[in-house]
User: What shape does this take?
Amino acid sequence: MGQPKPRSSSRFLTRVVLRNYKSIASCDVRLGELTYLIGLNSSGKSNFIDALHFVRDALVGSLDNALNERGGLSEVRRRSSGHPTHFGVRLEFRLRTGEQGHYAFNIRALKDRGYEVQTEECCLYGIGKGPFFRLEGGKLKDTSEDTFPAVTSDRLALVSASGLPVFRPVFDALTAMGFYNLNPKLIRELQKPQDGRLLKSAGENIASVLGHLERNAPEAIEVIEEYLHTVVPMVHGVKRTAIGPMETVAFRQDMAGSKYPWEFLGMNMSDGTLRAFGVLTALFQGNRDYTPSLIGIEEPETALHPAASSALREALQRASEHTQVIITSHSPDLLDDASITSEALLAVVANGGETKIAPIDEASRNAIRNHLFSAGELLRLDQLAPDPKLLAETGSYQVDLFGDQQ
Ligand SMILES: Nc1ncnc2c1ncn2[C@@H]1O[C@H](COP(=O)(O)OP(=O)(O)O)[C@@H](O)[C@H]1O
Ligand SMILES: [Mg+2]
Assistant: This one.
């Protein structure tokens, strides 16, 4: 086994397989550096992102916490007449060092209202070819390692296995995924100074993140300011500022009749500006000290003027050169650009409450390739549907979560 080559692309998750996660009965998709999850309201876009977020939450905190935050197992596992008893996730990944592998688990509801991790598997290179472990019902079935920490069936073993140097990089990468649904109300509030290495979900520690970047990666702030200025031309700069024991963000903004820009605190800025600032900070927060492995952003175009779409698209594209990016959107304006290739799109639809996710169908792929329509135009025409052929392929066999796969 030769030394793997460091990864040349930002692609961390290469494939995501889901079973019975919320409205998603089954899904098997490949991800690129930048993915647009496109679909109508309630089609299940957020549920897909939430499945990845769940993995992160369950590893950073505990499985119990991750379930409780979502209303318990009964809310996470798919509700349907068939009453599935399990839900499961398989993530195939490529680490920055170039090592490939997969991490998969499924969770089973128990009769007494509890749950257990029925199977959990983590593997680098391929089963038997590199470091791996497999657990069933809280018991270690097989591993490449001479010693393995104690495990229980109500927790994910990767948490304790991260104490072993071979599994640590997998744990670190999976817990370095960031998921964003930016909330202008929280960005606007005075914030307590806190850890600013990774932006939190709603932007509630954005002042600390800005402070961290000011100290460690001023060039990242320049990029954020450059795009913010394109999206909101009046704004020229942004910085962290202390107010008593609290902190907030301050924006430099042109004022009519004034020779010099004025400074406005976050509390006086518009929702659109604050959201755009949040999206850009999420995208460009990576620095030598800490870089997210993947960034998922919910509807980044919300509260933005359609004219800002091209700057936003460019920012997404640029960020995805360093960090894998997934966004959800139902905005034709954001997709109105010939540079968005069909490979970057995943169509999401819900039929009878069941979510289907796949690359768009062949006719739409051809229309984009031949520049007949942009992705945005196809969305307006309601022509962005998952490819029925691909859905039939992944639906025709029971998508397996475990073991080596093609
Ligand atoms: N446990 C579950 N089982 C089945 N459907 C679910 C479950 N949890 C949520 N849903 C459904 O998911 C849909 C919302 O999906 P969501 O991902 O938020 O849509 P959007 O595409 O707007 O982001 C709702 O229709 C809801 O009924
Ligand atoms: Mg949503």
